[in-house]
Amino acid sequence: MLTLSEIQKVLKATCFTHHCLDDKNADTACGADLLSDVLAHSKEKTVLLTGLINPQVIRTAEIIDLIGVIFIRGKVPSQEIVDLAEAKDIPLLCTVYPMYESCGLLYQAGLGVICHE
Length: 117
Hints:
37% of the residues lie in helices and 24% in strands.
């Protein structure tokens, strides 16, 4: 298990929302660019790594109670997405690492990983 704060350090990620990242614990990271994969394979206490950058990602995260979303490959969310995540209490982070490397780094740090690349 890692806190979102620890995940942020491992991935050298930037946080775009005003959440206390130490309050959220992740058991699993799910790396996917197809929201259907996320819906089918997510577990409790999961953080999503994705290259998709649209409001549907936040809505999906809310539906399945993800603890946070990390945008990969240096993608930066629009203010609309940040505002929606804030309203839904979903932390948003961004890393420059690609999907495979992000999943590998989190696995090395001790997190369970499901990667659909």
